[in-house]
Amino acid sequence: MISHFFKLSWNNFHPHAMKNLKLEFKWAIIFTVMTLAWMVLEKATGLHGKYIDYHLYLTNLYAIPAIIVMVMALKDKKKNFYDGRMTYKEGLISGVIISVIIAILSPGTQWIISYVITPEYFPNVIKRSVEIGYFNTTEEAEAQFNFANYAKQSTIAALVMGVITTAIAMIFIRTKEK
């Protein structure tokens, strides 16, 4: 089953077939821009500073626009590439490709977040997590809250959550045979 999936999806990377991936690249870029905008919003609302105690909870709301963007991408693929008729497998392959592209972009996205948008986040979260006793020492907190760790986590999360979201969304988006 898995080898069959990779044979099917690998064909999408043939040079002549790359034009078939325009929508996947477009939506991976849209997703990345949405992620950066979300981080600007978190910073602007004080979740990386004054209200950092709420960050742990409110950052999970990011799942809402993330799911919306992935569903919009799959619907776009169905409408504009498959002329309104897309099988579960076709949508799954498209969603996996989008997720892989997002995962590849994730370390760069995380770099922009960590060093451009909100360079104060790591020092703030390290300090606060030690103050409230989440970590016993600054060194323990620094081992958790750093660019390298977040770059790895965001890459893995992009892939895993993208595939899970796609697998569930395609139950509803796929063309149902009568």
Structure, briefly:
This is DUF4199 domain-containing protein. With 178 residues, the protein is mainly alpha-helical.
Give a written overview of the molecule.
By secondary structure, the chain is mainly α. It has one domain (21-173). The chain contains eight helices and no strands. α2 (22-44) runs antiparallel to α4. The longest helix has 30 residues, at 88-117. It is elongated. The chain starts with a helix and ends in a 5-residue tail after the last helix. The chain crosses the membrane at residues 21-41, 56-74, 95-117, 155-173. It holds the Pfam family DUF4199. This is DUF4199 domain-containing protein. InterPro entries: DUF4199. Keywords: Membrane, Transmembrane, Transmembrane helix.
Summarize this structure as a short list of keywords or feature phrases.
elongated, mainly alpha, 178 residues, 8 helices
Uncertain stretches: 1-7
Tell me the major beta sheet.
Answer: none
Order of helices and strands: HHHHHHHH
Q: Tell me the domain tally.
A: 1
Oligomer: single chain
Roughly how much helix do the residues carry, as a percent range? over 70%
Number of helices: 8
Q: For the terminal residues, how far apart are their CA atoms?
A: 26 Å
Secondary structure class reads mainly alpha
Radius of gyration from the alpha-carbon trace, in angstroms: 19 Å
Count all strands and give the number: 0
The average pLDDT value, as a whole number, equals: 92
What does the overall shape look like?
Answer: elongated
What fraction strand? under 5%
